[in-house]
Amino acid sequence: MNIAALVQGIATLAWVGLIAFIVVAVIRASRNAPLKKTGTLILVMAVLAVLITSLSAGLVFIQPEERGIVISAFAPKGYREVALQPGLRWVIPFAENVILYPISKQTYTMSIATSEGQIQGDDSITARTLDGQEIYVDASVIYAVDPEKVIQVHIQWQNRYPSDLVRAQSRGIIRDAVSQYQVDELVSTKRLAFIANMREAMTEKLSENGLILVDFVIRNITFSPEYAASVEQKQVAEQLAQQAKFVVEQKRQEAEQARQTAQGAADAAIIKAEGDAKARILQAQAEAEALRLISAALKDNPDLLMYQYITKLSPTIQTMLLPSNSPFVFPLPEFTQQ
To answer: What are phi and psi of 103, to 5 degrees?
Structure first.
């Protein structure tokens, strides 16, 4: 419960009651029916209202997400050098007043969209890259007032720090950072380095002025219409080049496949021919060996050839062939199969 707000409410009710009592007393007096001890009652109620009002003016309740700067008529510098911490605090009534500062996280957004950000309309940051291209950057700065430096913030900026410090510094830092990179680097290879450089610079600037940088977010980068058209044309050309490269590679693979198929067929033919040749050689060697064996057998048995000749004759032949030097021809003997 906020005790300070409750006391202020009671003080308000006391003054309303005092005014109402005075009105009733005047009406009764005009009708010749005055209240008894009217003056005394009015005085008591007035003193009570003043006391309660003074008490409410001296009580201040500081929320956990706030710090209080005490502006004092009795302090040498015109303010207390220590900020009020959360809780119910007491200040000198009517001689000191308290200015509250939030220490919770705050966000300042600068966007090209008219409905976003603290400023209505296009509030994006226009910047030029190292190669002279104009771009538009949308960014958000998430920050907080340093609880230990809240008095410094009040002295230097009061409540102007969101627009005069955060907005101004971030826009300048973004422009300086963009000027160090080429346009294609900001959206590809060096985007992270670009953001890191801005975050480091913003951290330093805000810290010098009593603020803490929580995060620095690049929401969007928009290109000029001319550059966007050239990028689109480049992407189309690259896609066509990639497609042509794919077709060439496909044809090369088909040619390689055909070559390998032909090479396989040629290798198979060679292997078959070599196999046939080896088979013929083996067959010839076998025939030669057979002839050698037959020749050796005939050499040892001269009549074996004649015997083989005779056995191969048709069974119907009834003559006997004798050697050429024999003048006789004899009939073959008849054999009766038993």
So the answer is: -110, 5
Domain with 257, as residue range(s), is 228-262
Please give the Cα distance from 112 to 237 (Å, whole number). Answer: 30
CA 51 to CA 15: how far, in whole Å?
A: 11
Contacts with 290 (C-beta within 8 Å, 6 or more apart), sequence order:
none
* Residue range 237-294, pLDDT digits in tens: 677 777 778 888 888 888 888 888 888 888 888 888 888 888 888 888 888 887 777 7
* HEC letters along 9-58: HHHHHHHHHHHHHHHHHHHHHHCCCCCCCHHHHHHHHHHHHHHHHHHHHH
Residue 193 and residue 239 in one domain:
no
Q: How far apart are CA 2 and CA 36, in angstroms?
A: 38
Task: Indicate whether 185 belongs to any domain.
Answer: yes
Which backbone phi and psi does 95 adopt, to 5 degrees? -110, -15
Number of domains observed in the structure of the chain: 3
Q: Domain for residue 170, yes or no?
A: yes
Tell me the per-residue pLDDT of 97-128, one tens digit each, with 9 for 90 and over: 999 999 999 999 999 887 787 788 888 899 99
Last residue of a domain, one of 172, 193, 223: 223
- Assess whether 133 and 178 both reside in one domain: yes
CB of 141 closer than 8 Å to CB of 170: yes
Which segments of the chain have a pLDDT < 50? 328-330, 332, 335-338
d(CA 223, CA 182): 12
Residue 24 and residue 115 in one domain: no
What 3-state DSSP class applies to 187? coil
Nearest to 55 by CA among 95, 100, 11: 11
Contact 113, 120 (CB under 8 A): no
Q: At what angle do helices 304-311 and 225-300 cross, to 10 degrees?
A: 110
Q: DSSP 3-state assignment of 333? A: coil
110 vs 162: CA distance, rounded Å:
12
